[in-house]
Structure formats: C-alpha cells, structure tokens
Amino acid sequence: MLHLRMIVPADRTEEVATLVSATVGATHLTVVRGAAYDPVGDLLTCDVAREAADPLLAALRKLGIEDAGAIAVENVDVTLSRSADQAERDAPGEGADAVVWESLVEATHEESTLTFTYLAFLTVATMLAAYGVMLDSSILIVGAMVVGPEFGPLAGVCTGLVRRRGRLVARSLMALAVGFPAAMLLTGGFSYLMSGLGLFTQARFDAPHPATQFIWQPSWDSFVVAFLAGIAGMLSLTSAKSGALVGVAISVTTVPAAANASLAISYSTWHEVWGSSLQLAVNLAGIACAGTLTLLAQKWLWAMQRRRVPAA
C-alpha cells in the first residue's frame, strides 16, 4: 500500500474526496478541515493499493492539486486492515507489477542530478577500479562497481524518454557526459600520484591481468550482459525492490572501463584506451536500450491489463 497526504484548497476538498472515494483500490480516506496553514487548506489522507496509485495521482494532477496545494506519497510497510486488504483485492493487477510513474520520475530526477556527491562517488569508484586493475584484483573491481552511481542517470534517460520529459533526459545526459570525463581526469591524476609514490608502475600495468583483462576487450557478450542488467535494474526501480540494484552494479563494467582508460592514457597504451572506451560505450548503450524497452513493455502490459478490467 501507499499512503497519500494531500493539502487541498477548501473549495476543492469535496471534489478530491469524491475522487478518492470513487477510486478502486483506495481506502482509509480522512479529511481534516482547516488543518493546513502553508499552503492554506484542508488535510486529506488516504491509503491506496500500489496498482491503483498512478491513475489517482494523474487525476489529482489534472485537478491542479500540486499547484494549489501539495501531494506527498509514502510507502506503507505494514497495514493491518480488512478495508486495505479488500482495496488491494479490488485493484486490478498485482502491486509488484505496477509502475508508479510519478514516483519513478521523482526518484530518477534526484539520482540523475549532477552534484558534488555524485561526482565524488563516481571518482572514488573509478580510483578503486584503477587499483583493482593494477593489482589484478576482481574483489576491488566488484567493489568499485557497487560504489559507482552511474545507474541513476541511465535510469533517468530511460524514464525521460518514455515519459517524454526532455529536461530529465538532458539532466541525466549531463550527469553522464560530465561525470565520467571528470572522474577519468581525476583518476589520471591519481595514477600519476601513485606512480610518484612507486605504487603504480608501467611494468605492473603492462603485466598480464587475467582477472581483469575483460575490461578493455569488449564483445557482444558485453552488450548482452549490459542489456540484461538494464532490464533487471529498471525492474528493481519500478517494483521498489532496490536490493536487486546491487546485482546490476556488479554485472556491468562501466566504472572499471573508465578506470582502465585513465590508466592506459597515463601509460600511453593506446589500444587499451580504445578498447576500454568502447567497453564503456557498449555498457552504457546496452543499459539505456534495455531500460527504455523495459519501461515501454511495462507501460503497454499495464495498459492492456487495465483494459481487461473496465471497472478500474
């Protein structure tokens, strides 16, 4: 279930209350007159089944509640109520399959913004991956993959394309276009520092790296893995199963490829620069394509499911 908290102008309260009452899957409607001071209005709350939330939110936006008042949405972990159980049974489809588009847009908007924190995580992840390449350590490579925040902007691109939100697409592309070059530049400086300290050497970089050589050797396997990871990642976001994102993070080699390219530039190993850059591009493209197609498929399947339940 999801919990909605709304501030509604007094002259729109009855209209909103009627809308919520008529929504299949909504229950626990509460109205507190004159409770809100900023903005001024009445306070309305309700619980709604996840699979019924998106149509209700869309209707509230059409009424202009977000402009004249406010709408807050929270996840409800446990609800002990026969009314709530009945609402979930009445709502069409399954909650795990439903996409709450407004929630997805809001989440990807936050994760795809170019911030200092985003750049810091991406840079640290790239530096960790650089150390993993030098030590030929798959453990460090996996750790760097988990730390990397690049899936957020990729999800923002997918969501923006499907929802036709040009600003979200532009913001996400900016985070990727600025983030990776900045992280690679700083990692290049980090490699020079480590070389000065004697921790990184040309001989160590040129030595065989059986555990990490896949980073700069792209193939169709790379695209397929990235494509599958993109599907899993988008499903984890839309179904609120964030634990699956860890598996997505350690399935693709975006951050390790960027790290290897930085090291290769530092040591003028140009064939690895090309291979790593291509690996990075292949992974980014695979995730973006898969994520967009997954959202389109979910949108179509959910529309078909709702058509089979006219009462919804």
Automatic annotation (TrEMBL):
Keyword terms of this UniProt record: Membrane, Transmembrane, Transmembrane helix
InterPro entries for the chain: DUF389
Membrane-spanning ranges: 116-133, 139-162, 174-194, 214-237, 244-265, 277-297
Source organism, top-level taxon: Bacteria
Pfam families linked: DUF389
Secretion signal, residue range per the UniProt entry: none
Database matches in PANTHER family: AT15442P-RELATED
The name this protein goes by in its record: Uncharacterized hydrophobic domain-containing protein
Species annotation: Actinacidiphila paucisporea
